[in-house]
């Protein structure tokens, strides 16, 4: 059996596995709760509690992915993961930030459920192929092959950003200031020529149905968004999945979460999450930095 103390000690690991598998905070929390319900019913001794917990949450998320696949196929516009929003530099709040970045989670979406499970368990949480084979009830050689395939797939598509965290924050803050100041030229200077911006509204709020590409197009798109009529709009500096980002609140409620990737001093990617279903868990965080340019006196 697994007692509550042991379960709580490994709760963050369980959430981490489920979140990286599903890209959903709400679903990951459900999987953690379901894992406890399963484990609390076990009456026999458990020799390896960590392995048992990881096995349980992994198999639960694999089952959830089956139903999630059909939902993703009907999704309106670009799909982005639910964001993990924390105060800037709160490194302890997002473990292994590189492995939970929105950019990586989007890449993991291109893997099969089995590949994703093996990659997350091996590359992020350090389980051996032998342990993973036992969790998934598959041969070790087969799991090893799946793991190598998944790793190669991710390495080929995974963005490589070596920019120091302080530089990412500086560039992001300068870009935010330019946006709030309505300085289109400065915005374009801080954007890479081939920058891409994705906007996830899920068909429930206004958002671009296709990625926006190119510095001028992205700058004008963001400028247009910031000048839309809003009730008491405020921008908060936050970290989004371990990356510099912002939270826009309207009338005190989360409206938009966005984060940027920076390379060579310029922003190369912007991900904007507006689907209200994906912001239900987000609370206003950090100090309000400014109002929109149209609200400034």
TrEMBL record:
<protein>
    <submittedName>
        <fullName>RNA polymerase sigma-70 factor</fullName>
    </submittedName>
</protein>
<feature type="domain" description="RNA polymerase sigma factor 70 region 4 type 2">
    <location>
        <begin position="102"/>
        <end position="153"/>
    </location>
</feature>
<feature type="domain" description="RNA polymerase sigma-70 region 2">
    <location>
        <begin position="7"/>
        <end position="69"/>
    </location>
</feature>
<comment type="subunit">
    <text>Interacts transiently with the RNA polymerase catalytic core formed by RpoA, RpoB, RpoC and RpoZ (2 alpha, 1 beta, 1 beta' and 1 omega subunit) to form the RNA polymerase holoenzyme that can initiate transcription.</text>
</comment>
<dbReference type="Pfam" id="PF08281">
    <property type="entry name" value="Sigma70_r4_2"/>
</dbReference>
<dbReference type="InterPro" id="IPR013325">
    <property type="entry name" value="RNA_pol_sigma_r2"/>
</dbReference>
<dbReference type="InterPro" id="IPR014303">
    <property type="entry name" value="RNA_pol_sigma-70_ECF"/>
</dbReference>
<dbReference type="InterPro" id="IPR014284">
    <property type="entry name" value="RNA_pol_sigma-70_dom"/>
</dbReference>
<keyword id="KW-0805">Transcription regulation</keyword>
<keyword id="KW-0731">Sigma factor</keyword>
<dbReference type="InterPro" id="IPR052704">
    <property type="entry name" value="ECF_Sigma-70_Domain"/>
</dbReference>
<dbReference type="Pfam" id="PF04542">
    <property type="entry name" value="Sigma70_r2"/>
</dbReference>
<dbReference type="InterPro" id="IPR013249">
    <property type="entry name" value="RNA_pol_sigma70_r4_t2"/>
</dbReference>
<keyword id="KW-0804">Transcription</keyword>
<dbReference type="InterPro" id="IPR032710">
    <property type="entry name" value="NTF2-like_dom_sf"/>
</dbReference>
<dbReference type="InterPro" id="IPR007627">
    <property type="entry name" value="RNA_pol_sigma70_r2"/>
</dbReference>
<dbReference type="InterPro" id="IPR013324">
    <property type="entry name" value="RNA_pol_sigma_r3/r4-like"/>
</dbReference>
<dbReference type="InterPro" id="IPR036388">
    <property type="entry name" value="WH-like_DNA-bd_sf"/>
</dbReference>
<comment type="similarity">
    <text>Belongs to the sigma-70 factor family. ECF subfamily.</text>
</comment>
């Amino acid at each position: 059996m697994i007692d509550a103390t042991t379960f709580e000690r490994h709760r963050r690991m369980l959430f981490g596995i489920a979140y990286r598998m599903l890209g959903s905070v709400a679903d990951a929390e459900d999987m953690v709760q379901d894992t406890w319900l399963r484990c609390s019913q076990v009456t026999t001794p458990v020799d390896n509690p960590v392995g048992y917990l990881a096995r349980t949450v992994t198999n639960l998320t694999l089952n959830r992915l089956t139903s999630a696949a059909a939902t993703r196929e009907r999704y309106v516009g670009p799909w982005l993961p639910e964001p993990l929003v924390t105060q800037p530099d709160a490194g302890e709040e997002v473990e292994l930030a590189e492995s939970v970045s929105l950019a990586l989670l989007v890449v993991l979406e291109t893997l099969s459920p089995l590949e994703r499970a093996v990659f997350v368990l091996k590359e992020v949480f350090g389980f051996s192929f032998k342990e993973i084979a036992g969790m998934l009830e598959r041969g070790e050689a087969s799991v090893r092959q799946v793991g190598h395939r998944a790793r190669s797939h991710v390495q080929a598509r995974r963005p490589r950003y070596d920019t120091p965290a302080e530089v990412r924050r500086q560039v992001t803050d300068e870009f935010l200031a330019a946006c709030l100041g309505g300085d289109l030229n400065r915005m374009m200077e801080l954007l890479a020529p081939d920058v891409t911006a994705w906007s996830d509204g899920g068909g429930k709020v206004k958002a671009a149905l296709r990625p926006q590409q190119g510095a001028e197009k992205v700058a004008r798109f963001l400028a247009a968004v910031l000048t839309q009529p809003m009730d008491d709009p405020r921008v908060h500096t936050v970290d989004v999945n371990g990356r510099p980002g912002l939270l826009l609140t309207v009338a005190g409620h989360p409206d938009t979460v966005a984060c940027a990737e920076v390379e060579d001093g310029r922003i190369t990617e912007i991900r904007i999450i507006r689907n209200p279903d994906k912001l239900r868990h987000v609370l206003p965080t950090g100090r309000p930095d400014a109002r929109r340019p149209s609200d400034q006196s």
